[in-house]
Amino acid sequence: MTASRSLSSSLRSLRPLAFGADPAGERMERIRRSPHFANGTFQNPVEGKPGPHGSKVEFAKTYFDKEQRVRRAPAGTIPVHPTTLADLAKPPVSGLRITWMGHSSVLAEIDGRRVLFDPVWGERCSPFAFAGPKRLHPVPLPLAALGPVDVVVISHDHYDHLDLPTIQALAGTDTVFAVPLGVGAHLEHWGVSPDRLRELDWHESTKVNGLTLTATPARHFCGRGLRNQQHTLWASWAVASDQHRVFHSGDTGYFPGFADIGREHGPFDLTMIQIGAYSEWWPDIHMRPDEGVRAHLDLQGGAHGVLLPIHWGTFNLAPHPWEEPGEGTLAAAREAGVSVALPHPGLPFEPAGPLPVDPWWRTVAAQATATAPKTSIPTATPVN
User: Do 204 and 214 form a contact (C-beta atoms < 8 A)?
Assistant: First the structure.
């Protein structure tokens, strides 16, 4: 028994810091009490397979095909708006301003409060500095130049949403972290004080400086280490002040629960919806652009508010062409009559004001896109 404990301790000492920590103690007891935890794992609101569907051999052939790999990255330099503190120093006229930093990282300034969603400032979304998907464009501004943040919101613990160097940098500030149940174990392991954690199950809320933050369901999965125990929850988020409401999808497959979220917490001035890194190999846990537009309609009870497409353009994470999520979202939004914002990374905009709508990706795509992908999206999604 002593030798076994010694071996276990030795193996833990070799575990990369980026793997984080497994929930234990009272945190694990709280997880076991969750109505969304059964048979030793967190459960999706609608059953879905995280996996690649079908033959892994065929998936590998598709993923590593040389011709397709060229299309999965831009041919030119992605235009990044050089965001400065001066851009963000003047309060938004409408009270709500949004800055997409790339991928799923978004700064939302809401009635004098600042919320940073899924901040990833690292060069790779990987546990290793020498391997893994590398960013395709620089961050629009250094993290230290961002200024004070009231709350950091994390959707789940995958590397492209929860970034060790970014969290370590923010751990030394006064910000509060709102995270799904179980994710707090990682943050504590990396130096975040427990009293600055707000760790929520689905449908639970917390208040931070006048904002109400609610963890809402998503259809995805979790895991950072060699074993995926499904002991950390994944979530979408609704954030509301007295005047404004925004929604961040995190990563999710489409499911009917978006309409329920909209009825309970919407309508929203802006939805931030995952529309990239989709594939026929994993249809249950990421949305295509047309599904993302449908989710927006469900959340809004119709074509209201502004849709900001996220989870695309920054990292090469799926077999589709790099520019396809932008083209697909633009086409589906036009068909459905949805207002869509298409900012360069780092470009601040106000949903109540003029929206950035230029398809900027076309100038740097590996192959000019003559026609947008076909979509099938109704002009409105009934609320059941």
Answer: yes
